[in-house]
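User: Quick one: structure for sequence A, then sequence B.

Assistant: Sequence A:
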Amino acid sequence: MFNFNELRGIHLEITSRCQAACPMCARNYHGGLPNPNLVEGDWTLEDFKKIISKEVLEQIQYFYFCGNYGDPMVNNDLIEMCRYSKNIAPHVSIKIHTNGGARKPEWWSELGTILDSNDHVIFAIDGLEDTHHLYRVNTTYERVIENSKAFIDAGGQAEWSMLVFKHNEHQVDEARQRAKQLGFINFNMKASTRFIASDKYEVYDKERNITHYLEPASTTNLNFITQEQVDGFQTWVDNTEISCVVKYGKEIYIDAQKILSPCCFIAPAPYIFNDGILAKPQEKIKQQYYSLVESLGGFEKLNTIDNSLKEIINSNAYQTVWDYYWNENKLIMCAKTCGKATSFSQPRDQFIEAIEL
């Protein structure tokens, strides 16, 4: 791995809470029942100042608020975290990923006055008035547009990020045009790769009734995972070469429980609930995760409240353990996200196009 003095970026999950119920999000089961394994947590401003210290801010080039389970806007201290960071290290670029449905326009206007031209907020807007809510369940298009407009009008730099499905692919051109009219600086399109064995994904309500189906866009070329591939996953893992993205990008991830991991793909393992044909590899992923944590000294050594980022990153364990987990006992998640084979190797979302407006 890299040393602390080489660290360039940090991915932060300052909350694991979210007001939305996106059907393919690991917070819930198909948008209906909540994930029973998820432990919710939040950072306070004091936590942030202790972990992202002056020494850290002067070291890094960027950080971004995103995570696996939560929306950063739900954290009550987000604005003050941004203000603190910009006061100490204005050179550090901040990016925030959000569904944009939380808070009032006044809150967004204040955020827009704190962030500068180096900082971006990426709004997940998956269609227009009649389609956005089909994936971003519990959010409304009108509220997201109102909030994003308040942020832009206050001087904020915003990007429109659209997940493209069959139900909204016909609206891409109109959505792009609206983004330009509203003052967004970029329009990004992605396709979900979270369809597993079928091109129909059921969406449930809280009573487990099917409300509608999600289907991939006609322009998306997805390779669905089959039972045969799952049965042979270990052979595939053993034969793929792992090239760690964050090793070369010099980045770390810290979750809502303040535990440091190399990336957001390894970190969510404790909260996975076994689902369908992936149950066997998912269970192995959990086992490997706890083995990795033990090799790194346990959760107490990875807790960023009790240990500085420099102490964790420069520890002998963090510096030396990876060859074993990339070569001898290969981590499934490393093989899936940073492997060079093709069976399971795919990111969570498939990038389609980014357009500067």
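Sequence B:
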Amino acid sequence: MSRKKNKIRVFVADDHAILRSGLRMLINAQGDMEVVGEAEDGEETVRRVRGLRPDVSIIDITMPKAGGLKVIGELTRKSPETRVLVLTMHSEPAYLRTALSAGALGYVLKKSVDADLLSAIRAVHVGKTYVDSELAEYLVRDALERSTHVLPQTRDIPLSSRELQVLQMVAEGFSSRQIAGQIFVSTKTVETYRARIAEKLGLKSRAELVQYALESGLLSTDKLSLPKHTSSHRRRRASGKVK
């Protein structure tokens, strides 16, 4: 019997081809693991993982078409035998907390790649949770803070429905350009929404927006679903009409 069958089968999802190539070389150089597939966006990731059924799927949070947080939820429901490991540049605790809540077992920062990533793959494969050492302390601190903190309710947020949509997508890791493409408005319009949101909420940084979105329930896992592209959306984009 070939020992290759005993290798950890890994899927890599990231929108940067150079990073995927580097990860493929790193992983395939290990005697106990191999890359069995890749994807550059969220929708492709869900489709290919469901077909390939890898042991571990490495997911970036910020990806085109469907963000990583949405993908985690989809994979947890549709491919439960695949363990999810997040590899991201986002070091905000809110992302970590939401990713774990969505079903991820591991969370590694891209600057900690190489040894940490390989250890994370092996740990996640056997069902253990692996969190980047830089973020581990946040889990303890967050648990203590949340035990006495009253979270705001979504109904109390002073934002319009469109502003809430933009805030959720910002918190999920999408850039203004990616948001513009998904809600069929210009990038400048998205920037206007973001400025208006920040002014209304008194927030300045993306980290503050993410924290607010999480505490308001906007990043709860029941709100994370793949986007639906309807024919009316396509017609609106083709005609150049936006709202």
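Residues 187-201 form the longest helix (15 residues). Residues 154-239 form a domain with the Arc Repressor Mutant, subunit A fold (CATH 1.10.10.10).

User: Thanks, that's what I needed.
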